[in-house]
Amino acid sequence: MFYPLASAALVGVALLLKEPLRWDEAAFGFACGLLLWSLAEYVIHRFALHGPAYLAALHDMHHADPRALVGSPLWLSLGSICLGSLAPVWLLVGFGSACTVTAGLMLGYIYFGALHHVIHHHRLKRGGYLWRLKRRHTRHHYGKRPCNFGVVTSMWDRVFGTYCPE
């Protein structure tokens, strides 16, 4: 509930500032945020959740029982979004752009969470889009080598050589 409202509020702020962003600038920032989320998802999953022992141990709970409702608390995800997106983009290109980039990143995070939940908790029609995502993600959980760290997209796995075909 929080992230859709926060994302809409950030876009609203960007469009209502004293020097507001134009719609095309806001749309570009939003698209950059979605792309940034896809890369952040890959990097966080590969290097944080499968990296340092403390974080890997927490993530191993998910691998041990993929249907368990294990996730990051709001304070951690929101803090990470503010420190990893809003603040640096604000310093680089301004507050309005930071709002739209962060809004896109937040909606990417929501989309990831929804997809990840669906592929672990619902029966999916064989051959459909979600079924193919589930098959690719299953290779991540049960494959012989670490691969397929992206849930939303396989693009970064392909770029960085960690893609395993379904």
UniProtKB/TrEMBL annotation:
Q: Principal localization?
A: endoplasmic reticulum
Q: Which residues form the Fatty acid hydroxylase domain?
A: 30-162
Q: Which residues cross the membrane?
A: 28-48, 68-87, 93-115
A Pfam family matched in the record:
FA_hydroxylase
User: Which keywords does this Swiss-Prot/TrEMBL entry list?
Assistant: Endoplasmic reticulum, Fatty acid biosynthesis, Fatty acid metabolism, Lipid biosynthesis, Lipid metabolism, Membrane, Metal-binding, Oxidoreductase, Transmembrane, Transmembrane helix, Zinc
Q: Where in the cell is it found?
A: Endoplasmic reticulum membrane
Q: Which domain of life is it from?
A: Bacteria
Cofactor(s) for this UniProt protein = Zn(2+)
Provide the topology term for how it sits in the membrane: Multi-pass membrane protein
Name the UniProt record assigns to this protein? Sterol desaturase family protein
Q: Which organism is it from?
A: Bradyrhizobium campsiandrae
